[in-house]
Amino acid sequence: MKRFRFDLEKIFEIRAYREQEAEIELGRALGILTALEREIQSVAAARVKAASCRFAPGNGSDEILRYDLYIRRLDAQRDRLVKEAAEAELKVEEARRVFLEASRERKVFDKLKEKRRQEYRGIFLAEETKTLDDIAGGSAVRRLWGA
Known about the structure:
Shape: rod-shaped
Mean pLDDT: 88
Low-confidence stretches: none
């Protein structure tokens, strides 16, 4: 009997490929979001340090003014990064939705393939049993007839 062959194998492979591509895109989006979050934390740490050094003993008015300008620049950078992170979060959610949809489509074909494999296995086992019964029945007849 022929080996099992899934007629929709090419479509299954395309769905699996789409799922893999969607997973890669989701990973990229998550990587961008994670990098933005780390940068926000870095800016926050720099701001805390600048704020604590601003009124350190020995700082003149010009030094305090420089710290104030630096803190304002850090605040503006933080605001920009938070906005970018919000946009990146939307992209992550969209990429996650696309990945889940691609995964669902691939799983449908996976289940169909498994169902067809089980049907094939049932037919194969029935034919094998029939062949073995024929062989066993034939040897019993040959013994009876002395052949």
